[in-house]
Design the sequence.
């Protein structure tokens, strides 16, 4: 028989698992099957272009390069930089301060 304490611990474990799984997902993940560069590889490239803390990441279809790019918002101090990495070649397509109207 499950006691109230065991039940509460099971629920907490389940909640933590679900939260962790959701944190691993990113916007545009469904497009990743067509990318030659993985999200992990793109993160490394983006952080070399502009060191800091990634605050947002997505894979999107956008003009320029191969048409498929990883987009990262990287914060360092008070400045947020937008870095775009081509999902096919790994080239840095964008490395500029985020505009006044972020996505």
Sequence:
């Amino acid at each position: 028989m499950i006691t109230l304490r065991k039940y509460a611990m099971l629920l907490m474990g389940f909640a933590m698992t679900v939260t962790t799984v959701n944190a691993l997902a990113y916007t545009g993940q469904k497009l990743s099957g067509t990318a030659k560069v993985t999200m992990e590889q793109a993160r490394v490239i983006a952080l070399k272009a502009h060191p800091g803390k990634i605050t947002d990441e997505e894979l999107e279809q956008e003009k320029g390069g191969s048409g498929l790019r990883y987009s990262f918002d990287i914060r360092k101090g008070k400045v947020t930089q937008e870095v775009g990495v081509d999902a096919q070649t790994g080239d840095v397509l964008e490395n500029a301060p985020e505009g006044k109207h972020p996505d």
